[in-house]
User: Which sequence fits this backbone?
């Protein structure tokens, strides 16, 4: 789930010498960091090392990744005129990402999953100027100026689709759309203000014939709507048991999840119990990607992650 390498000493050694954007913009470094968890953990797929704000930076948005904070926008978006600061994403804008994907596609022995941030989550960063606990400005724009909101999300949907398309055309085997902050919304607000743009993203990839994954945090009440956006797989965080999630989603999509990342810090006896519980709750129904319910915590012991992978493989 996301960059599992955050807990790896070999990843930290790279980060001591290079910033995030430096790694992402250097295909050899990005490919190396992408492959580190595959080598160490024996997982069944690799996740492209990138960040959801990469396409924004590529089209000229002044965004910085601040340690311990996350993406920070120098001049937040607050009015309709700010949308003019966004332009279409062209393949040449992210040639380094395509080079990384091509390199990985030729070297990996497992599939590569590309990813991007969903329009709502990207919009929240642009409007708030960085991470938020309340998303107050974002919701205020959505409620108070629906026309500007719709235009902003549609523009971001086009950028996101273009970003994912480049990854697939360069060799990514699947792509994942992260709507990290969608859980801040009610189902009604999500359906009216977010679902159309997320659907645009998946519709824009429909001709590529690759599996698509849709994931958000704290989105238990939104799962059916997230499936309506058009993905093949819906990611489930740890707050909703996998059997309950499958009931909410129905039979039309596969599921990904959903071990609580914090469990990985407990003694392995407790970890094994929780892993088996997730698998048991799925009831051997097809279409389940075992995974964490969110990103690996940096303090996680990589050996525990490897033992989890081995356990899941052994259970089958």
Assistant:
């Amino acid at each position: 789930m996301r960059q599992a390498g955050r807990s790896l000493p070999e990843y930290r050694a790279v980060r001591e010498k290079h910033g995030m954007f430096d790694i992402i913009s250097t295909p050899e470094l990005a490919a190396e960091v992408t492959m580190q968890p595959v080598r160490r953990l024996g997982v069944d797929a690799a996740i492209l090392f990138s960040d959801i704000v990469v396409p924004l930076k590529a089209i000229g948005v002044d965004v910085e990744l601040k340690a311990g904070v996350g993406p920070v926008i120098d001049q937040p978006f607050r009015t309709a005129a700010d949308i003019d600061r966004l332009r279409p994403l062209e393949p040449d804008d992210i040639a380094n990402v395509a080079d990384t994907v091509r390199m990985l596609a030729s070297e990996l022995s497992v599939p590569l999953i590309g990813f991007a941030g969903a329009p709502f989550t990207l919009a929240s960063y642009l409007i708030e100027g960085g991470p938020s606990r309340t998303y107050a400005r974002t919701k205020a724009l959505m409620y108070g100026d629906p026309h500007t909101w719709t235009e902003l999300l549609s523009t971001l949907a086009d950028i996101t689709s273009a970003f994912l398309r480049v990854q697939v055309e360069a060799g990514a085997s699947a792509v994942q759309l992260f709507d990290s902050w969608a859980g801040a919304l009610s189902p009604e607000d999500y359906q009216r203000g977010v679902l159309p743009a997320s659907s645009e993203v998946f519709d824009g990839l429909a001709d590529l014939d690759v599996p698509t994954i849709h994931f958000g945090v704290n989105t238990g009440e939104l799962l059916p709507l997230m499936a309506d956006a058009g993905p093949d797989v819906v990611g489930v965080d740890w707050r909703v048991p996998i059997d309950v999630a499958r009931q909410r989603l129905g039979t039309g999509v596969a599921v990904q999840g959903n071990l609580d990342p914090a469990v990985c810090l407990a003694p392995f006896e407790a970890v094994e119990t929780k892993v088996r519980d997730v698998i048991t709750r799925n009831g051997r129904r097809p279409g389940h990607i075992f995974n964490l319910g969110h990103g690996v915590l940096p303090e996680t012991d990589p050996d525990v992650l490897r033992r989890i992978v081995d356990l899941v493989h052994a259970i089958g």
The CA atoms of residues 101 and 170 lie 6 Å apart. The mean pLDDT is 95. DSSP finds 14 helices and nine strands in the chain. The longest helix spans residues 146-170.
